[in-house]
Amino acid sequence: MIDWYLRENPLSQLKDKRVLITGGCGFIGSMLARRLAHLGAEVTLVDSLIPLYGGNLANIADIRDKVWLNISDVRDPHAMSELIRHQDYLFNLAGQTSHVDSMTDPFTDLEINATAQLSILEAVRKFNPGIRIVFASTRQLYGRPQYLPVDEKHPIVPVDVNGIHKLAGEGYHMLYHKVYGIASSCLRLTNTYGPGMRVKDARQTFLGIWVKLLLNGQPVKVFGDGLQLRDFNYVDDVVDALIHAALRDGAIGEVMNLGSDEVTGLRDLAQRLVAVNGGGDWELVPFPPERKAIDIGDYYGNWKKAHTLLGWSPVIGLDEGLRRTLAYYRKHGALYWD
Ligand SMILES: NC(=O)c1ccc[n+]([C@@H]2O[C@H](COP(=O)([O-])OP(=O)(O)OC[C@H]3O[C@@H](n4cnc5c(N)ncnc54)[C@H](O)[C@@H]3O)[C@@H](O)[C@H]2O)c1
C-alpha cells in the first residue's frame, strides 16, 4: 500500500523531509523553496544576501513563516558543516552568476563556485554522506557550440572564468559520487527566467534588465545583430527538474542538460516581449567589448537525457512565461529595481 502510494504520488516522499537549499533567497532557490514548503518539506535556506548577487528577501516574503532562513556564506566551512548535518536533501544553488564579474574578479568566482563547493562536499562526506544532492550547473561550460543542439557529449571548452569554476563545482559533485558514493546529480541549466530573477542589471540574465527597461518605458537593448539563438526555461519547469532529479535513483551520478525546443533569436525574443507587454520599443546596440569577448554565439541544448532519466519536459511556453514574468514585475517591480 505504501509502495503504491509513493509510486502514484512521488512528490509525497518529500513530506516532512529536511531540505537545505543553498542560494535559497535567489531566483531559482526561492521558487524551489516555495514548492518544497507546499509539499510539506522542512526547508532551510542558506544565503549570504550579498547585494551583487540575486538574493532578495522579496523572493521569500510570502513563505517567510514556512521556511528557516540562515544568513551564511557557503565559503564558511564551519557554518556549512553544521547546516548540512541531519538534512535529507541538499539543493546546491548558491553561486556567483555573472560572467563579466568572473573576468574582472576571478578569485571571488573561484571561492564561491569552486572552493566552497569542494568544502560543502567535504562536509557532506564527513558529516552526512547519506544526503541526496542536486547541483545547479550551467550550459556555460560548453563554451561556443561546435554543433547544435548541444548534448552532454559536446566538448567542454568554457569561454570565461565562470564556466571553468562551475565545471570544477560540477566535477567535484561527480567525483564525490564515484569515489565516496555520495548520491549527487547535476543539471546544466540554460537561460532561466521568471518571477524573482534579478532585474536591476544583467548580472544574472539579460532578460532581467530587458524587463526592467520595458516596464520603465525604455527601449530593450539587444546586443549585436540580435540573431544569436538561445533556448529558455521558465523557472517553474526548472524547479520540476530539480525536484525530479532529487527523487529519481536513475539520476544519481548523472549530468543532464535542461533546455527547450522553443529556440529563439534574441531580436525575436525582444519583439515577443514587447508584444506580450502590449507596447514598448527595442533597439540594436553594439556589443560591449567585455561581453563580446566571452559571447558563445548560438546555443540551444539537447535535453533528451533529462527527459529519459527524470521524465521531465518543459511545459510553460515562452509567451506564457513572459506574460507571467511581466505580470509579476508590474506588481512587485519596486522591490527589485534598485
Ligand atoms: N538563472 C539562470 O539562467 C542559470 C543558468 C545556469 C545556471 N544557473 C545556476 O543556478 C544557480 C541559481 O541561479 P539563480 O539564477 O537562482 O541565481 P541567483 O543569483 O538568484 O541565486 C544565487 C543565490 O546564491 C546566493 N549566493 C551567492 N554567493 C553566495 C555565498 N557565497 N554564500 C551563500 N549564498 C550565496 C545569492 O545571494 C543568490 O541568492 C546558480 O548556481 C547558477 O550558476 C542559473
Description:
- With 338 residues, the chain is an alpha/beta fold.
- The chain has twelve helices and 13 strands.
- The strands form four sheets. A seven-stranded parallel beta sheet has the order 3-2-1-4-5-6-11, with helices on both faces. Strands 7-10 form a two-stranded parallel sheet. A two-stranded parallel sheet has the order 8-13.
- Helix 3 packs parallel to helix 5 and helix 9 packs across helix 12.
- The protein is globular.
- The N and C termini lie far apart (53 Å).
- The site of nicotinamide-adenine-dinucleotide (NAD) has 31 residues, from helix 2, strand 5 and strand 7.
Write the layout of secondary structure elements.
Layout: H1 2-8, E1 18-22, H2 27-38, E2 42-46, E3 67-70, H3 77-84, E4 89-92, H4 99-104, H5 106-127, E5 132-138, H6 161-180, E6 183-189, E7 191-193, H7 206-215, E8 220-223, E9 229-230, E10 232-234, H8 235-247, E11 255-257, E12 264-265, H9 266-277, E13 282-285, H10 289-292, H11 304-310, H12 318-332
Parallel strand pairs: 1-2, 1-4, 2-3, 4-5, 5-6, 6-11, 7-10, 8-13
Antiparallel strand pairs: 9-12
The structure holds nicotinamide-adenine-dinucleotide.
Helix content: 40-55%
Distance between the termini: 53 Å
What low-confidence regions span 5 or more consecutive residues with pLDDT below 50? Answer: none
Q: How many strands, which pairing sense, and closed or not: the largest β-sheet?
A: 7 strands, parallel
Bound molecules: nicotinamide-adenine-dinucleotide
What is the strand content?
Answer: 15-25%
In spatial order, strands of the major sheet run 3-2-1-4-5-6-11
Separate helix tally: 12
